[in-house]
Amino acid sequence: MPTLWFSIAHETIMAIGTLVLCGSHSRLPNLTLPMDLRRLKYFLAVAEELNVGRAAARLHLSQPPLTRQIKALEDELGVLLFTRTTKGVELTQAGEMFKEEATNIQMLVEGAIDRVRRAGEGKLGRLDVAILGQRSTTSFPNCSGIFKTGRLGSTSCCTR
Q1: Could you list the pLDDT tens digit for every one of the 160 residues in the chain?
Q2: What's the 3-state SS for the chain?
Q3: Model pTM?
Q4: Are residues 116 and 148 in the same domain?
Q5: Contacts of 15 by beta carbon, 8 Å cutoff, 6+ apart
Q6: Structural domain tally of the chain?
Q7: Could you tell me if 113 and 151 lie in one domain?
Q8: What distances in angstroms separate CA 66 from CA 43, 72, 133, one per listed residue?
């Protein structure tokens, strides 16, 4: 994965995946970003269904690969997320906590994707307008009118 460097106001920001570090070209030793979003999606499906077979069907996967992914996630985290029962699975205490966190992460990712798409379509952003001079009140009597429609879903600052 490439490392991206940005210089802003004499500070250097290093972006690795979704992790952002500030400092002067510092690197963290042995930095790994665990799991991908696909594993979170798989975990949440099993956690919601409480049955690996039904979760696999919902995800359009066969059961063995899903079971392997869940096992790999548990190994990566170093905890059991599920206890296996004759009827399916149950969440452990760690699994319950991880379900909350994974749900929050999923909502954040979905929100970020939505905001980025809206920004790309020009429906989200920020517009700062400054009007100088005496004729400004007649030239632009209500510069914030376009923001009242809510079409841009943005913040604005109009100064006279």
Answers
A1: 444 444 344 344 444 444 444 444 444 444 455 678 999 999 999 999 999 999 999 999 999 999 999 999 999 999 999 999 999 999 999 999 999 999 999 999 999 999 999 988 888 777 666 666 666 566 555 555 555 555 555 554 555 4
A2: CCCEEEEECCEEEEEECCEEEEECCCCCCCCCCCCCHHHHHHHHHHHHHCCHHHHHHHHCCCHHHHHHHHHHHHHHHCCCCEEECCCCEEECHHHHHHHHHHHHHHHHHHHHHHHHHHHHCCCCCEEEEECCCCCHHHHCCCCCHHHHCCCCCCEEEEEC
A3: 0.61
A4: no
A5: 3, 4, 6, 21
A6: 3
A7: no
A8: 9, 10, 66
Indicate if 116 and 41 belong to the same structural domain. Answer: yes
The owner of tokens 């020009």 is 122
Domain range for 26: 1-33
Q: Cβ distance 25 to 11 under 8 Å? A: no
